[in-house]
User: Fold these one by one.
Assistant:
Number 1:
Amino acid sequence: DFLFFWGAVFLITTTLVAFLKKENEELIPAKEETKGITDTYKLLFSIIKMPAVLTFCLLILTSKVGFSAADAVTGLKLVEEGVPKEHLALLAVPMVPLQIILPLVISKYTAGPQPLNTFYKAMPYRLLLGLEFAFLVWWAPKVKHEGGFPVYYYAVVVLSYALHQITLYSMYVAIMAFNAKVSDPLIGGTYMTLLNTVSNLGGNWPSTVALWLVDPLTVKECAGAQGHACATAAAAEV
């Protein structure tokens, strides 16, 4: 029902925009950005060959490796430790207003000549929160009781997630502001799309690798079955 409702809202609003929004025909661009797909890819290739852009792409592709495991695995590990999925889902609700307000607040600090300063300042705090997330997973079985988890545990989880959102959005808004600032206005759309795509990829591939490494890096012991290993998923099932 939730997906159906918002799907309907999405279709209605985009259809209204398509029929009711009129382009300003007086503002004709000085030069057409590209003439087709081939031209677009040639343009992207020429952009990425620039030494400064290439260096920046390498930096943003690797900048999120340090907190990929904490971001991708914490929720799954909390569920594994017995925290109900529905409770974790409910904890995401207070994050919604925070996610709306944060970009508005952070944009004031990223509007200056050096937007990446906010990115640099947020990084060590986000790395420390990774350790704090690890503590939450370790702490979960210690405080668990027959009725579930105490309220103070959920309060700590919500506070931790809120602090994490602040660091996450500080880095996200800063990188978006920087991409907007350095993009050539003549080819702004193509330039920004390239940088933002690389930035998104820099967040996705470390999370994928972190999830893939969970099983091989998890230490397991077989209880009551001497001489049997359970390092792999198949062996653990046996």
Note: The chain has one domain: 41-211.
Number 2:
Amino acid sequence: MSGCEARDAKKLVRSPSGLRMVPEHRSARSPFGLDEPPWVPDKECPRCMQCDTKFDFITRKHHCRRCGKCFCDKCCSKKVPLPRMCFVDPVRQCAECALISQKETEFYDKQLKVLMNGATFFVTLGTSEKSELMVCRLSNNQRYLVLDGDSHYEIEIIQISTVQILTEGFTPGGGNTRAIGMILQYKVPGSEELMQMKFTASEDFSCSKKLSASWLAAMHKATKLLYESRDQ
């Protein structure tokens, strides 16, 4: 097993919430991941935290695996996939959390694959006036943004500080906009200095423009998940 494979190795663990397939090393966890929340202690929740129903021998209490709060079966009956916490199977969640997790499923089922497949952009580094045509993709372990052209860059996702999606086609009265690029700011490990890259979609082929727009939309969603993980 290579050093990279060893870092990316996973193990099956059981928690009160269910079975999880997690990285053996915490440093190898996905930057989009969430930690399991602490459960509200049973003694601190005599009533459902949603509908205020009193718990008794018949009305049992259940904990939402995403927020850790305590609910009755009616308010916490849905079992929904929760890949951000690495659960193997769908887990019990309250209605509010289940809705959020269901929306995230699209990212894991579709947009993550778009990011890993990559798209082509003209990349401008810093204040340079020169740009380079590069294929940009998310690494399979989700931890790096990989750029390949005549040059090669690997940007660690957790070092990204801001992502600004550039669009065109906006009208004051509202209307369709199209993502045409992005400005990315990130820190170089071991330095507090912010580096900047500008990505501009290639105008060569209409199919390339469509792919680039889809990639940028997926990157926008990934950025939101990244910010949520940091704010946890």
Note: The first strand starts at residue 10 and ends at 15.
